[in-house]
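User: Sequence in, structure out. Go.
Assistant: Echoing your sequence, followed by the structure tokens.
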Amino acid sequence: MNQLNSCLPAWGTLAAHAKQFAKVQLRDLAAADPRRWQNFHVQYDSWLLDYSRQRVTPQTLTLLFDLARAVDLSGRIEAMFRGDLINTTEHRAVLHTALRSDFAGTPAIQAEVRASRQKLSVFAAAVRSGRMISR
């Protein structure tokens, strides 16, 4: 977490909420809400995200979404997929999304993706053939 984010009111509110729930027992949350599993999971295609066994309440979700809006998470995600220079330590784009998709970004990003995939293919072939053995 950087210092700017820790000063956000939304972050402070969420941190206070977390502190309030630090000692709450999950069994108590489950006992208080017989529909806990239905209320705290998301299913999409073959993916299931079950967060019913976490110290999460409807208020927690509201506060998390408030924080996401405060830091413009959706804008940051869009910047990542556009290939913007958002890796501040290396002053470059984060390209892991491009490696996992048919990225329609700039020619420079497409070339970097192809080069990275080629390097990975060479490395994998060396491991499979036994030329590269981990010790």
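User: And one key feature?
Assistant: Strands lie at 41-44, 47-50.
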